[in-house]
Structures are given as structure tokens and as C-alpha cells.
Design brief:
The protein is α/β, with parallel strands linked by helices. The chain is built from 13 helices and 19 strands.
């Protein structure tokens, strides 16, 4: 049996913060106490001194696309490379994505993705399963999907051109109703396709990277949220909005909540800290993602929403392409959309919290670990520091000041969208189920060591609602 004792750190859980020692046996936390002496543990126990460091539950990136095959190519970060980015960022679990092949067996879609990820992942993972069409037999498909341990589906109100959009409202409502029946959480990429098509039809160019923000305006996001929100409200079921990007979208969430809708809102560091001016430079193609970057006004509105508790989850939508892949086109319609971000997330959000003076590290833990664990049915195995939880632990130096750059990050994309950003706080050691996967700048992850984590019931969505 492998044992690990971490002494003299500041343990930070969403529910409490205290100086304490923590004992790990094999993969789980077995004892937490104010002091656990070396003489109280069996001989051979590894002892780590964590004085001056915070010990956080492993970060959960609730929205990633590692090894995504899209538009005739594949993303830069494979499962192994994505895991490396994760470990350096203190991320021990990611929630990735499985496509719907529309062949009538969603559970098989998830199982194929799980099998592929198990071969390369060095951190743990779970899934949300895409659903792109209403069809006969979907009731049974969803029942079998849940038996496979996937309790969150992903839908789109856009991308009609690639077959993701369920266009008819009655079919969309029928899918939502079946998800309620099976206690599945519905997550949605909200951009109204009709609005986007109308804007595009009237647009006269040019189609440079800066046009991306014009062609997919914030009102499209607000209308997408209104569409799915009204259905969820009619059915009295919760809704998870992925990567909220705009002030207009936020206002629509507020209106729906005022009517009684339970909404879990996710945003990303790029919608908090980057604006559409990034699209105007010579390297504008590097900053194309969907939804697009918005204005500084949108940044500030979302930052305020984080500070006042209106946003429950921060994730990254990590979908990295190499500089060469991104720069292969200068047309916003064909630039490969997506950016890296898993590694940078914890330091960016902690810096924002520390600089705000309004929320502390416990709230950071909630946004990046506990709330996503609860939303995706992984809590308290993940997202907590308590006896019986997985020993996913991050030794975090809250005082280290450093600068994010392509030289200090590890994505195979070869760049970071946060180049030159000065941040405070850095993961020093990352443990996955009691095993060190990153320590003092050295990566120790093992391909295939990541485990699939099944999801428990999530559809009622009551545990983290605003």
C-alpha cells in the first residue's frame, strides 16, 4: 500500500479553510487532522512539507476538446498532450465531449470516446454526450447512455451546416422532456442560427478575423439562451449554459432566472479577460473561437457576474490548433476555431480573484472544482478535500508571480492566447489519486493512467444553483 503524508499546508475546500495535515493511502484521502506526526504513520510513508502552500482539490476543467477531429484535421493537443497541459495547470479531471453519429446508439458513441481516451489520458476524465437529432428510439438511447455513466448531454442552437442543430422547437422540447424523464442534465451551446444566417446574408465583408465578432453577434447568444431557456422553463427542468460570452446573454439568463428557471452558467477565461481587439492584429486568426471574443464591456459584465455569484463554473473550452493550422486561413469562416487554455486557467482565475479583493481562494476552488464536480455528478469523489474523496490534490503557491508565455506553457499548439500576461499563483505539485503527475516543473504523467469517472444523477441540478 502506498502512503503519502502532506504536512503543514493550508487546506482549502469550498466549505472550510484550515491548516492541517492530510494522509493518503493508495488513491484516497483517509485522514485529515491538525497534526499527523511522522511517528503516527507506517514506515515507508512519503512525507511532503507544504509550509507556505495552499492544498486545493484537483481542478476540474469542465469543458475540453482533446484530440478533436474536425474539418479534415485534428487538434494539436492529443489526449496525452492535453493531459500534460492539465497536470501543469493543477487540473486532475476534464469533462470532454463525444459526438452523436446519429446511428441510434448514444451509449456506443460515448463508449468509443471513453475507450480512445483511456489509451492516452494521464488525468481522469468524464464526458458530455452530443445529441444532434430527435429520432425514434431516443428514449431507450438516453436510458442506455445513463447506464453507461454519462448523465449530461450537449446540444447546439447553431451549426446547422454541419448537422448539429435540432431545428424544430417541438423536437427540441421532446429531447428536453426525455432528458428530464431520465434525470439527465442538458448543456447547450447557445447561438441562434437564424440570427447568424440573417447577419451573414446582409454582410458585405471583408471576412478577415475581426469579422468573426460581427458575424456571430451577442444578440445571437441571447436568443439562443431564450430559446432553450423557455423550453426548460415550460418543463420545469434545469439548464446548463456553456461558455457564456456576452452581457446580452447574461441579461437573458437573469430574465429567465427571474421567471424561476434554474440555470448553471459556465464561462471561460478568454471571455473574462480577452476582447475582440485581439482579432484585429496580424495574428488575429489565433484568437478565433466560437462564440467570438466580445467587447471590453462584455468582459467587465462577466467579471462582475463571477464576483457576485451569478456564474457557477469557469472552464476553458480547450480546443487547440497549432499556429500553422490557425494561420492557414485569414477568412473567419474557415479559420479553425478554438484556443488552448487548460494550463493557464487556475492562475488566471486566482489572480483575478486576488486582485478583486472581493472573493477569495475558496470561491476559486468552488468555480474551478467543487461546482463542476457537483454539476457533472462527480462530487464528492472529485471536487472536495474530505475523507473518502480521491486524493486529487494541488500544492499551490499563492505568492509566486510569473508571466504566461509560450515558453512557460506546454500546449502542442506552440502558443498561448495569454502571452505576456502577468499572474499570481502557480501549481507546484499535482497529485492524481495520490500519485504525483507534476512536480517542480517536471511532468510525471503516464499515458493510460487516467480513469473514466462515471456521473451520478445530475439532472435535477439543485445543488449549485444561484
Amino acid at each position: 500500500m502506498k502512503r503519502l503524508l502532506i504536512q503543514n499546508g493550508l487546506l482549502v475546500d469550498t466549505e472550510w479553510t484550515r491548516h492541517a495535515d492530510i494522509l493518503v493511502e493508495d488513491s484516497q484521502i483517509v485522514h485529515i487532522a491538525a497534526s499527523i506526526g511522522a511517528d503516527e504513520v507506517p514506515e515507508g510513508t512519503e512525507i511532503i512539507q507544504a509550509e507556505g502552500l495552499c492544498i486545493l482539490p484537483g481542478i476540474i476543467d469542465a469543458h475540453t476538446h482533446f484530440h478533436l477531429e474536425s474539418r479534415g484535421t485534428v487538434t494539436a493537443d492529443s489526449f496525452a498532450e492535453g493531459s500534460k497541459c492539465a497536470a501543469f495547470g493543477g487540473v486532475t479531471t476534464v469533462i470532454d465531449f463525444a459526438d452523436d453519429d446519429k446511428k441510434g446508439d448514444l451509449a456506443s458513441c460515448s463508449k468509443r470516446r471513453i475507450k480512445a481516451m483511456q489509451e492516452g489520458m494521464a488525468v481522469d476524465f468524464s464526458l458530455h454526450q452530443g445529441v444532434y437529432a430527435f429520432r425514434e428510439g431516443l428514449d431507450e438511447e438516453l436510458a442506455n447512455l445513463k447506464k453507461a455513466g454519462v448523465s449530461v448531454i450537449k446540444m447546439f442552437t447553431t451549426y446547422k451546416n454541419v448537422g448539429y442543430l435540432v431545428e424544430k422547437r417541438e423536437e427540441l422540447k421532446a429531447i428536453f422532456s426525455l432528458c428530464k424523464k431520465h434525470d439527465l442534465l442538458v448543456s447547450v451551446h447557445c447561438e441562434d442560427d437564424a440570427t447568424i444566417q440573417k447577419v451573414d446574408a446582409a454582410y458585405e465583408g471583408p471576412y478577415d478575423p475581426a469579422s468573426h465578432a460581427k458575424l456571430r453577434p451577442s444578440e445571437a447568444e441571447a436568443r439562443g439562451i431564450d430559446t432553450v431557456g423557455s423550453i426548460a422553463l415550460e418543463l420545469d427542468m434545469p439548464l446548463y449554459v456553456v461558455h457564456l460570452s456576452s452581457k446580452a446573454g447574461l441579461q437573458k439568463v437573469r430574465e429567465l432566472r427571474a421567471k424561476g428557471l434554474r440555470v448553471i452558467v459556465e464561462t471561460t477565461p478568454h471571455y473574462l479577460f480577452l476582447d475582440k481587439s485581439k482579432l484585429e492584429g496580424a495574428d488575429g486568426a489565433l484568437y478565433v473561437m466560437t462564440p467570438p471574443l466580445r467587447s471590453e464591456e462584455d468582459n467587465l459584465a462577466l467579471q462582475e457576474a463571477v464576483l457576485n455569484g451569478e456564474i457557477q463554473v469557469i472552464a476553458t473550452d480547450h480546443c487547440s490548433f497549432t499556429v500553422e493550422q490557425k494561420m492557414a486561413s485569414n477568412d473567419s469562416r474557415t479559420i479553425l476555431p478554438g484556443i488552448p487554455g487548460t494550463e493557464e486557467m487556475l492562475s488566471l482565475v486566482y489572480s483575478f480573484a486576488a486582485n478583486s479583493g472581493r472573493i477569495g481562494i475558496q470561491q476559486v476552488v468552488n468555480l474551478l472544482s467543487t461546482a463542476p464536480a457537483k454539476a457533472f455528478g462527480l462530487y464528492p469523489r472529485k471536487g472536495a478535500i474530505r475523507v473518502g474523496s480521491d486524493a486529487d490534490l494541488v500544492l499551490f503557491d499563492p505568492d509566486e508571480a510569473w508571466t504566461i508565455s509560450s515558453e512557460t506553457t506546454h500546449s502542442a499548439s506552440g502558443y498561448t492566447p495569454y502571452e505576456g500576461t502577468e499572474v499570481l499563483g502557480r501549481p507546484i505539485m499535482t497529485y492524481l489519486r495520490g500519485r504525483l503527475v507534476m512536480g517542480d516543473g517536471i511532468y510525471l504523467g503516464l499515458e493510460g493512467n487516467g480513469e473514466y469517472v462515471p456521473q451520478k444523477d445530475v439532472g435535477r441540478g439543485k445543488t449549485i444553483m444561484h
